[in-house]
Amino acid sequence: MQLQVKGKGLSVTDALFDHAEAKLERLARILPPWDDATEVELELSVERNPKIAQAQIAEVTVRTKGPVLRVRESAEDMYAAIDQAARKLERQARRYRDRRKDHHGPPMDEVPEILGAQLDGLRAEATGPDAVEEPVEPTPRLVKSKSFVMLAMTQEDAALQMDMLHHDFYVFRNSDDGQVNVVYRRRDGDYGLIAPEG
């Protein structure tokens, strides 16, 4: 496991580095054996707002051969923030390892039609006889743009990646056909897949 510790607006002391290394090296024992080239990046920073009590921030990104694990923890003390982040990462790593062992989830190759039905229902409600005219609100603006390398992976790996990042959806390139797909979390806890036709 390769550990890189960076300080954002603060210097990383040998004691901080040694503490982080001791806490994060346990990940190597939890992660599956094929993730031997895991890269761990720890960024330490301090929130400058004096009203924030837990201003010491530890943000950890773990790049495995599968998903990217990421946590951000804050505490009154940097050592405590590192400890909290390490504990949370260990839980994520165990879930990742266990999910890789046991692929008994729902089939991911069925494209749900429920989204279209839900949209039709919302349109009917909005235009029905009891529809109330809402006050005009400002049009939402695009305020953030993000680009990333779209890796080819299976539907199951994309669902796992989404789960590890705690996102509600994940865009990926399907390794079966090379098409861009979206896997998303449904309200019932299962996953759905959106894929282009043809």
Please supply descriptive tags for the structure shown above.
4-stranded mixed sheet, 5 helices, alpha/beta, Double Stranded RNA Binding Domain, SHC Adaptor Protein, single chain, 2 domains
Can you walk me through this structure?
By secondary structure, this protein is of the alpha/beta class. It folds into two domains: 100 residues, Ribosome hibernation promotion factor-like (Double Stranded RNA Binding Domain, 2-Layer Sandwich); 64 residues, SHC Adaptor Protein, CATH 3.30.505. It contains five helices and eight strands. The protein has a four-stranded mixed sheet. Strand 5, helix 5 and strand 6 form a beta-alpha-beta unit. It is globular and about 55 Å long. It starts with a strand and ends with a strand. The relative contact order is 0.12.
What's this model, at a glance?
With 198 residues, the chain is an alpha/beta fold.
